[in-house]
Amino acid sequence: MFETLILMLDATMRVSTPLLFAALAGLYSERAGIVDIGLEGKILGSAFAAAAAAAVFGSAWVGLIFGILTSVSLAMIHGFACITHRGDHIVSGVAINTIVAGLTVTLSMHWFGMGGQTPALSGDARFMEITFPFAEALRDVPVLGLIYSDMLSGHNILVYLAFLMVPVTYWVVYKTRFGLRLRAVGENPHAVDTAGISVAFIRYRALIVCGILCGLAGAYLSTAHNAGFLKDMSAGKGYMALAALIFGKWRPVPVLFACLLFGFLDAVAIRMQGVVIPGIGEVPVQAIEVLPYVLTVLLLAGFIGKAVGPKAIGRPYVKERA
Amino acid sequence: MSQAKVPAWVNMALIPMLNILLAFLVSGLLILAIGENPVEAAGYLIYGAFGYDEGVGYTLYYATNLIFTGLAVSVAFKGGLFNIGGEGQAYIGGLGVGLICLSLDHTMPFYVIAPLAIIGAAVFGAAWAYIPAYLQARRGSHIVITTIMFNFIASSLMVYLIVNWLKEDGRMAPNSRTFEENAWLPYLHEILSPLGIEIGDSPLNLAFIWALLCCVFVWGLVWHTRWGYQLRTLGTNPTAARYAGIDTAKVTIWAMLISGGLAGFVGLNEIMGVNHSLLLNFTAGYGFAGIAVALMGRNHPIGIILAAMLFGALYQGGAELAFEIPTITPEIVVVIQGLVILFSGALEHMFKDRIEGFFIRRAVA
């Protein structure tokens, strides 16, 4: 029983990683007042770029750089539309998701001609698992040994980076000048403008950070979690990250727990396939799959707590009326 | 800056044309980057979509779905609501159609099943839009997020229902049994041939006519009824609507119900018209494409018909194009779709302000 739990928590960490990157990406963007439903597209774009570059250059790190560059460029398109041209944030996000969904398949067919996939990656082209020191030796220590050797050890570096990003984000958002301005821009951009700080510049910087984090999420999917790019491989992770962001009420630590919860549900859904629970019978996998979405809807509706987003979210900032 | 001085044709024709041209220009560059000739590609595309009977039939068949989802998005848009859940509503609408056909096709004739299926599509689609609408109107949760969540919930629900309950016994394929022929919407080529009009075989069916009727319905409802006026007021200025005594919550909910019902009609075309059985993922992104159609059609039924035809032509022509030039995948159509959303939606102010400024200055001078 305990061993099963550890295995499931181990799986939870793997599944939560892209959600965590993407949800924190969304946190920077939405805290600055930019709605970002383009997380999905940025993850997919980065996953493709990372896998393609890793396949060509044979290095996962080069892949990561290309993934981040792609994702940041997409974020800049979003910024150009939403900040510079005061366009609708949601329409822009939908546009980015749609363009990327088509473009990744078109380009991968053109470059690799493998039905929308990239070549399978191996060796240095993938992020490999890191085994903690003494993981083998300590496995026999009761309770803690399994947690250390099987759950915490043996992930790739991006997994640890994702979890590290939570305290970093907390520090940036709550303890730095940039973070204060970021939050202010999302709540009351006029006040920031009055203080002589450019609202647009802060928002653009928030989107760059958002792009970098989505880039990490995408690269994780195609060069660490899987060995290559598959058509539509983001499979709604961007939207689920958005749900986790709302579920965590736009705050770094609760967002972490939301991602872990959603990841855990995913691990449970896989394990529960065909399992008959005494007294209830077989629980359909789909019922567990939809739980993150149902929980988010319930939360938004105020049935379990209340999620209130940044005040100025989704509204373009107009300096003065002519 | 007064809008009145800008000639109507600028807003209705010039700016949309400019946006679509820009989208095509970028798509052309993409095709060039792939190493193919964009002009040649456009030639295949246009020939595939309009060059022969069957092609036109397919174009209109794709357009049928897009008219439904485009109208769905636009009715919500008119009330200032972004219904991004057309995909889920269409999916559940198809469930409604499928259930009616599966339960009645052994006992009832076509003229009983068809109206019931229309009602089924509308009621199921609307029901799926009702919860997000209610939550937006009464509990203040954001409709965009809830409709996105409901797309995923719909998708899981349909997998569960079809795999566990509706699947044909003894078969592996996740779809229901094929309906009896009296639950099929007749193809247009079958209707027209007794009248002496021969058109090529295509999936184009009676749902196309229903889509056109829906356009008339939406036009009447939004522009010529008291409710439509309330809807447009809500969309233009919610505060003013509230002060004018409009029950904004009620208008919001009804707008979403109508929107969901319209999206549900995709099921009519796909399930009853073409596939004749309930299956997975028949919505194939039409719900999202509806956003592009509504944006390009300026949320007006006439515009939506034109935009739906254009996108229908892209779908059909794109298939032809991929056949003629194998290095180009049909997904290139998705890219074009996204570019249209980007230029005529998100970047709409990029040209609009400048062009309007130009015409205002000219009018003043």
Write the layout of secondary structure elements.
The complex is a heterodimer of chains A (322) and B (365).
Chain A: H1 2-31, H2 39-57, H3 60-84, H4 89-111, E1 129-130, H5 144-152, E2 155-156, H6 157-175, H7 177-187, H8 189-194, H9 199-225, H10 237-247, H11 252-271, E3 276-277, E4 281-282, H12 285-289, H13 291-300
Chain B: H1 8-34, H2 38-50, H3 53-78, H4 86-104, H5 110-139, H6 143-166, H7 188-192, H8 207-224, H9 226-236, H10 238-243, H11 248-264, H12 266-275, H13 286-296, H14 301-324, H15 332-346, H16 348-364
List the chains of the largest interface with their residue counts: A-B, 47 and 49 residues
Q: Spell out the helices and strands of chain B N to C.
A: HHHHHHHHHHHHHHHH
- Give the oligomeric state: heterodimer
* Structural Rg of chain B: 21 Å
The CATH level-2 architecture of chain A is identified as Orthogonal Bundle
Count of alpha/pi helices of chain B: 16
Word description of this protein:
The complex is a heterodimer of chains A (322) and B (365). Chain A is an all-alpha fold. Chain A has a single domain (2-300), classed as ABC transporter involved in vitamin B12 uptake, BtuC, CATH 1.10.3470. Helices cover 67% and strands 2% of the residues of chain A. Chain A has helices at residues 2-31, 39-57, 60-84, 89-111, 144-152, 157-175, 177-187, 189-194, 199-225, 237-247, 252-271, 285-289, 291-300; strands at residues 129-130, 155-156, 276-277, 281-282. In chain A, the strands form 2 sheets. Chain A has a two-stranded antiparallel sheet. In chain A, strands 3-4 form a two-stranded antiparallel sheet. In chain A, a hairpin with a 3-residue loop joins β3 and β4 (281-282). The mean pLDDT of chain A is 87. The mean pLDDT of chain B is 89. The two termini of chain B are 15 Å apart. With 365 residues, chain B is mainly alpha-helical. In chain B, α4 packs antiparallel against α5, α4 packs across α13 and α8 (207-224) packs antiparallel against α14. Chain B has helices spanning 8-34, 38-50, 53-78, 86-104, 110-139, 143-166, 188-192, 207-224, 226-236, 238-243, 248-264, 266-275, 286-296, 301-324, 332-346, 348-364. The chains are: A mainly alpha (322), B mainly alpha (365). At the A-B interface, α3, α4, α10, α12 and α13 of A face α5, α6, α13, α15 and α16 of B.
